[in-house]
Design goal:
By secondary structure, the protein is α+β, with helices and mostly antiparallel strands. It has four helices and five strands. Strands 1, 2, 3, 4 and 5 form a five-stranded antiparallel beta sheet that branches. The longest helix has 14 residues. The termini are far apart.
Length: 131
């Protein structure tokens, strides 16, 4: 009879059995976020100031008027692994096992900084996605 009284308590203790952890895999070890761009880059900044704030761009282009545009294209991937044990069902059924899986999220951020004819920031545009 005591065993039947203890079963609900044991079930509660075992039902939460499981592990979850996250692994971020960034192609660029420094954090590059839209907030960082919005905070650090202001209209009228020089190219040297932009390079100091964000580092080297991935792409540098010039339009037909000779004005430069710098493109920062960053991607990061996050993988969340999880597993869970049988919990309460191990006690009742007598079997056991582990179930698990992974969830992957990929973030992209593309920032285009256009400079005027004096090599000062004229315009900043961006595109951000998560899938």
């Amino acid at each position: 009879m005591r065993i039947f009284l203890l079963l609900p308590i044991i079930a509660l203790l075992c039902s939460g059995c499981g592990h979850r952890y996250r692994k971020d895999q960034a192609k660029n070890p420094s954090r590059f976020t839209l907030g960082e761009v919005q905070l650090k880059i202001k209209k009228g900044m020089s190219q040297a100031e932009v390079a100091k704030a964000l580092g080297s761009p991935n792409i540098v282009t010039k339009d037909s008027d000779g004005q430069e545009a710098w493109v920062y294209d960053k991607m990061s991937r996050s993988v969340e692994y999880y597993d869970s044990s049988g919990g309460f069902w191990v006690l009742i059924v007598g079997g056991g096992g582990t179930r698990g899986g992974a969830t992957t999220t990929q973030d992209t951020l593309t920032v285009v900084i256009k400079f005027n004819d004096r090599d000062r920031v004229d315009n900043v545009t961006y595109h951000s996605s998560r899938f």
